[in-house]
Amino acid sequence: MLPKIDIHTHVLPETLPDWFKKFGYGDFIRLEHHKPCCAKMMIGDRFFREIEHNCWDPAVRIAECRDCNVLVQVLSTIPVMFHYWAQPSHALETSRYLNDHIAATVSNAPQAFVGLATVPMQDPQLAAGELERCVRDLGMAGIQIGSNVNKKNLDQREFDAVWETAEKLDACVFVHPWEMMGRDEMQKYWLPWLVGMPAETCRAICSLIFGGVMARYPKLRFAFAHGGGSFPYTVGRIEHGFNERPDLVAVDNGVNPRDYFGKFYFDSLVHDPKALQYLMEVAGEDFVALGTDYPFPLGELNPGKLIESMSWPQPLKEKLLYRNALAWLGANASKNIVRLFE
Fold first, then answer.
1. In whole angstroms, what is the distance from residue 276 CA to residue 246 CA?
2. Which end of the chain is more exposed for a tag (fewer CB within 10 A), N or C?
């Protein structure tokens, strides 16, 4: 079994402060440990999700990783913890709490984990400052951000402070769908997660391309969750719109969207061998990396199984299972783990 790096995993502290009580407003998550090895994520009195101890216990995570030869997990918070809707100073406080926890987890097992920070994107200056603290002082690899910020697309120039800082620090950026557009109109059948999330990721990619962010910051290493959502599979339509209606599409960036393949990364979480084959072909074999959404049920429950099932030569599988992850994380972030794969 080949070694693996999983770039898409989520983590929480075992306990959370009562931020609702402290700040006096908002949908801050609290945890109810209602039985051993299990907790309810609650928003006020409303149940959000049940999590198990593999969400907070490093020893459990390491044991489960060992079973499937995942040598390293890249840790990021659960998107509901972004708190972009909160007052900026409060979101900074919650971000620092979560980031300090991730950094401590990594520090205690530096060959098993790499950390990504969360930052208060509703205030890009605060976000840039927290990014710098997390990379310089805490040794984190980069940040995880949402696919939109309070319904603002990621092409807004106010976010340039974050991109400039990330590029300066050689920090990677993982974009995760959240606050899915149209979710209020499709609550039944879990459609926000099944339909909304792929569309959200495509929204983020198109915004970053058409808004010129990737052109202005060519050294920035973006990776997109869930195989890039619907973007790789609708790029023909997107390109056609770019070519036929440049007056509507190419207003801020005249580069064909298809030309950006090979300039950003995707995780491998597509759940289908034909989809993975196509993703690898259009994205480039150097730009797809194992991601599982551990420890949640929409993830790949047997990490790397889909990649391992493909009739590809071993060197190609090695790229998707760990080599591309090392390249995305960057030399500084990979220094503690690269020797595991030599």
1. 31
2. C
pLDDT at 23 over 80: yes
- What pLDDT digit, counting tens, does each position of 90-136 carry? 999 999 999 999 999 999 999 999 999 999 999 999 999 999 999 99
Measured distance CA(292)–CA(102) in Å, rounded: 18
Bridge partners of residue 314, in order along the sequence = none
| Structure-block tokens of residue 268 | 């491998």
Quickly tell me which residue has 């149940």 as its tokens. 47
Cα–Cα distance, 178 to 102 (Å, whole number):
21
Q: How many C-beta atoms surround the C-beta of residue 111 within 10 A?
A: 12
**159 — phi, psi (to 5°)?**
-80, -5
Mean pLDDT over 267-273 rounds to 98
Dihedral over Cα of 281, 286, 287, 290: its sign: positive
Q: Residue 108 has what pLDDT?
A: 96
Query: For residue 93, what are its two tokens?
Result: 């406080």
pTM: 0.97
Contact in structure between 93 and 38 (CB atoms under 8 Å): no
Length of the chain: 342
Radius of gyration of the chain (CA): 19
Q: What is the mean pLDDT of the chain?
A: 96
Give yes or no for a contact between 29 and 44, defined as CB atoms under 8 angstroms apart: no
Q: Which CATH architecture is the domain 4-12+54-341 placed in?
A: Alpha-Beta Barrel (3.20)
